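HUMAN: Please help interpret these tokens:
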Amino acid sequence: MLKYYLLFIFTALFVFIFDQNIKFLFVSGLYWESKCVSLTLTFNKGVAFSMFSFLGEYLKYIQAVLIGGITLFILLKKEILRRYAFAAGMLIGAAFSNLFDRFLHGGVVDFVYWHCGFDFAVFNIADVLIDLSVILILYIHYKAEKKAKK
């Protein structure tokens, strides 16, 4: 069981450190633009698509409780940790990175802006990793269910 705890913790730490280092580049002034993508610094005061920004300072505390609760749940449920250690570590590391931004910068550091054909929300690496971890969790879950039905 120790290997699953270590995989979870090291994955979460790696994602957190990686994402914070990328964000540091943009906070320090990095900027790049092309026909379809602009890499430019913004601070998102809400969640996805700036929803709940009206909560202001309370949002970071609400998220801290939610992320802390999810982390505790994952660590206490051995079967979940055993099955999803890598994906859950990726999810929690990215979530803590975005939460850390809220405490450090007053909002999440976003920098990828897609504007080719249509305008899309500005996002960051942690957002992408959260999406990928959810896809991976769903894949592992449905693969296990399909195997159990045989």
User: Anything to note?
Assistant: The chain has one domain: 2-28+39-149. The longest helix spans residues 78-105. The CA atoms of residues 101 and 123 lie 13 Å apart. Residues 2-28+39-149 form one domain.
